[in-house]
Known about the structure:
Elements: H1 2-22, H2 28-42, H3 44-52, H4 54-66, H5 71-91, H6 96-115
Helix pairs in contact: 1-2, 2-3, 2-4, 3-4, 5-6
Amino acid sequence: MKKYLLITLGLLSLVVGIIGIAIPVLPTAPFVILAAFLFSKSSPELYQWILRTKYLGALVKDWNENGVIRPRAKILCTILIMISVVSSFISIDLELWQQVTILLVVGAVLSFVLTRPSHPKVQ
């Protein structure tokens, strides 16, 4: 029972992470890393699958091995979030509290992403 719950939560986390690729306000990296963690505890097959995927596997490996988010991912994340926020503010009539909420969430996401190390520590 626990195994199936962890697999289900892992799949949900992975789906949210993938949606985060298209909707930059949702952070992709934490959800994909959470999915990998849940898979590692419940399904070796799914864990190995996520590690073998071209884009997600590198993200998980960088995080697992070094706690790193690469500069290219940081730049892409920042650009996509900014485009999303600006286009939302231009195209949707948002209340002030909604704008402030969006800016707070975006600020939290960007501060997490941008404060992670960009390269593994050299030993």
